[in-house]
């Protein structure tokens, strides 16, 4: 059984302002919830249609029916479980290694996929513009497939952040150096731009190394790659070694 | 003005059986429609809230209001235009170059993104299992961003197809050869597996070259990459040259 107040609270967490007002967010699905439980995230309460997650004490979980799950889920086809977690305290930005900077990524699926990619390639830090979608958005949490527990995400004014960094700054453009022929360092900042507009003009001025992912084939008509697939190719190139 | 019969027909095209019964599909948005018009696709009828697309004759287009567009659109937030096209005749499978084989890709966004990637990397042929999502699905058409006009897609029984090919067959697995250290040919078949289950056991037996995209970082807990981002990395490696 889920009370009306609980339903009201949980559905409100689909909106950013209520997530930050309550310092809570939620995840759905066994795999994502398990990853968060195994990490440093503090469980507020777990709702499940099955008697699973034996490691969670009984006062922290409720067995509910599918109808109740539907009322609290953000998914069109709800999973078997939903867990509300406390938002962790914001950590400071890690200043070494490869850092991915996101300039106004708007699509939750793209942010989640990029977090999963960073996790795969051992990148610990993502720095987002304040306009980038919130990473506690349920659709982002869903798309990260647990990587949210392992990648540090901060939101800040990118112009100030990039002006103070000592690391080399990379960005991809149509007219940059062929990424396959570039020498890529093990430390640096990689800026990925907005889905529709790419890297903003203000930030473009701060890019020291302009890279291009070359197009192949005779037609050359594809205008651009999706930002998540472009990130995949770029992180692969930075990581593969020469 | 859109008639009731037109609304009924167009909304029915969201379902595969009606697309194939009517030999019609639709695209939404100026960019996607323009790409299809510029290619060999035959327009059935264009519906737009604006008097655009001057190259389309008046008997092939209707200016409609936003309310009518909403009735025929498959999008939560409709664009300004929707165009119904005739399905092209199926072309035979191109048997040279790099060929991407999809084993039961279910997510329309993933298929659309993979088509866009193939277009970027100059890959002309995708061969799908019969269980793979239909590429005329409106969500696929949307995600291809026009690449649907330039990549040949066929559906077939993959087991028979792979048994008769002369090309080397590649697939990615957790325990394959490091893709960054492998010699990759300019011709061959690359199998990408289902989102949840990977490459099916039947097809796995036909793979001659088992590849792995290595994970980096100390944690190594990410279980897998999204199939579209994995495809991005693999196609980049096959295309980049050594």
Automatic annotation (TrEMBL), chains A, B:
Ranges for domain MRM3-like substrate binding: 5-83
tRNA/rRNA methyltransferase SpoU type domain location: 98-235
Gene3D superfamilies associated with the record: 3.30.1330.30, 3.40.1280.10
Key words of the record: Methyltransferase, Transferase
Pfam families linked: MRM3-like_sub_bind (PF22435), SpoU_methylase (PF00588)
Family: Belongs to the class IV-like SAM-binding methyltransferase superfamily. RNA methyltransferase TrmH family.
InterPro entries according to UniProt: Alpha/beta_knot_MTases, MRM3-like_sub_bind, Ribosomal_eL30-like_sf, rRNA_Methyltransferase, SpoU_MeTrfase, tRNA_m1G_MTases_N
Alphabetized SUPFAM superfamilies for the sequence: alpha/beta knot (SSF75217), L30e-like (SSF55315)
Protein name (database record): RNA methyltransferase
Gene Ontology biological process terms, A to Z: methylation; RNA processing
GO molecular function annotations of the record: RNA binding; RNA methyltransferase activity
UniProt keyword annotation of Metal-binding present: no
């Amino acid at each position: 059984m889920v009370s009306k107040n609980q339903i009201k609270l949980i559905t409100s967490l689909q909106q950013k302002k209520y997530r930050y007002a309550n310092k809570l967010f939620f995840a759905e699905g066994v795999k994502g919830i398990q990853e968060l439980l195994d990490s440093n995230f503090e469980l507020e309460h777990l709702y499940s249609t099955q008697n699973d997650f034996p490691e969670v004490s009984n006062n922290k979980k409720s067995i509910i029916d599918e109808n109740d799950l539907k009322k609290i889920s953000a998914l069109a086809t709800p999973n078997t479980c939903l867990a509300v977690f406390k938002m962790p305290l914001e950590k400071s930005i890690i200043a070494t290694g490869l850092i991915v900077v996101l300039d106004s990524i708007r699509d939750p699926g793209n942010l989640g996929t990029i977090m999963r990619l960073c996790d795969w390639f051992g990148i610990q830090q993502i720095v987002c513009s304040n306009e980038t979608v919130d990473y506690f958005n349920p659709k982002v949490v869903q798309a990260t497939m647990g990587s949210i527990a392992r990648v540090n995400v901060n939101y800040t004014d990118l112009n100030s952040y990039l002006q103070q960094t000592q690391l080399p700054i990379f960005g991809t453009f149509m007219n940059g150096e062929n990424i396959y022929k570039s020498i890529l360092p093990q430390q640096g900042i990689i800026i990925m731009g907005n889905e529709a507009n790419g890297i903003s003009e203000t930030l473009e001025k701060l890019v020291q190394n302009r890279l291009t992912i070359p197009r192949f084939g005779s037609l050359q008509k594809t205008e651009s790659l999706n930002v998540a697939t472009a990130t995949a190719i770029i992180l692969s190139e930075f990581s593969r070694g020469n």
